[in-house]
Amino acid sequence: MAFPNSLLLAVLFSFLSLLPSAQSRLSTEYYNKTCPQFHNVMQRIIADKQLGAPTTAAAILRVFFHDCFVNGCDASLLIASNAFNKSELAADINLSLAGDAFDLIVRAKTALELECPGVVSCSDILAVSARDLVVMVGGPFYKVRLGRKDSKESDPSIVESNIPKTTTPMSEILALFAAKGFSAEEMVALTGAHTIGFSHCKEFANRIFNFSKTSEYDPAYNPVFAQGLRKLCANYTKSPEMSAFNDVFTPGKFDNMYFKNLQRGLGLLLSDQAMLTDNTTRPFVDLFAANQTAFFDTFARSMEKLSLYKIKRNREGEVRRRCDQFNTLQT
């Protein structure tokens, strides 16, 4: 029996509506027509900010990791708490995130809203910022496909279980990364982002003060390094802003010195040092310490993979007018 033409058209349009539109596909050229100056604007804002505040690269990387690891790369971390709701930023582990990262996002979003209003998502801004800053401080280039949408929710209650702490056992860190689809090699490479930036004294104070009945500091530390940290952090309880570089030799350069430092007893955080003693992760620490190209290749591949983790597309999200606020007030 022949179908009426009207019925055939209805079935056809219903089928087509289920297909992903071109706009829903991520692409490095996503903004070429809708915001052709996107990359130029981003590069200008990023260069100005990094030159003025050299810790911005490390700050953005940390914000990017903390955002992506909690329900995907969707800029949910950028939402500010309000009188009605607490956001992910209210979680204890996010309280120490550096303001320079958020300042960069605000600057970039403001400039892009003037250039092409309502087009570029905050999650794309964050992903490109992380990549461009890695490159700017000497790290590897990798592709960032664009077209993410921004999350419509930000729940602080799910943060703690998704972000490893400096005291989290290596077995649990590996399990957390594995649950998100990342291998031990990829985990070690991503942790290599600690080659830039700093950590507050409170994050490693338990390793340098009253470590045990037989030692004031963790014997895994190089003794000279430990004594230097003890002097640096002597008044950290009164001055919580006191901090130390993650990489004491090349703190502002993205390289493989971080892994060499681990081998010398210069790993600042307990979770850093644990990678050297764990049988699963030690081979990758040794590989990356000996071969910077291997580290860069794995880091680039892992960052590209991370940037696509549980992204939001189409109606799953929105393009925020401001990165710290949902377009519709959440009550």
TrEMBL record:
GO terms for MF: heme binding; lactoperoxidase activity; metal ion binding
Alphabetical list of SUPFAM superfamilies matching this protein: Heme-dependent peroxidases
EC numbers, comma separated: 1.11.1.7
Record keyword Heme present: yes
Binding-site list for heme b: 194
InterPro entries linked: Haem_peroxidase (IPR002016), Haem_peroxidase_sf (IPR010255), Peroxidase_pln (IPR000823), Peroxidases_AS (IPR019794), Peroxidases_heam-ligand_BS (IPR019793), Secretory_peroxidase (IPR033905)
Location, primary (coarse class): secreted
Free-text comment on the cofactor: Binds 2 calcium ions per subunit. Binds 1 heme b (iron(II)-protoporphyrin IX) group per subunit.
Annotated binding of Ca(2+) 1, by residue: 67, 70, 72, 74, 76, 88
Residues that, per the record, bind substrate: 164
Domain of life: Eukaryota
Disulfide bonds: 35-116, 68-73, 122-323, 201-233
GO terms for cellular component: extracellular region
Stretch forming the signal peptide: 1-24
Enzyme active site: 66 (proton acceptor)
Domain Plant heme peroxidase family profile: 25-327
Compartment annotation: Secreted
UniProt: Ca(2+) 2 binding residues: 195, 247, 250, 255
Keywords linked to the UniProt accession: Calcium, Disulfide bond, Heme, Hydrogen peroxide, Iron, Metal-binding, Oxidoreductase, Peroxidase, Secreted, Signal
Family: Belongs to the peroxidase family. Ascorbate peroxidase subfamily. Belongs to the peroxidase family. Classical plant (class III) peroxidase subfamily.
Function: Removal of H(2)O(2), oxidation of toxic reductants, biosynthesis and degradation of lignin, suberization, auxin catabolism, response to environmental stresses such as wounding, pathogen attack and oxidative stress. These functions might be dependent on each isozyme/isoform in each plant tissue.
Name the record gives this protein: Peroxidase
Species assigned in the record: Theobroma cacao (Cacao)
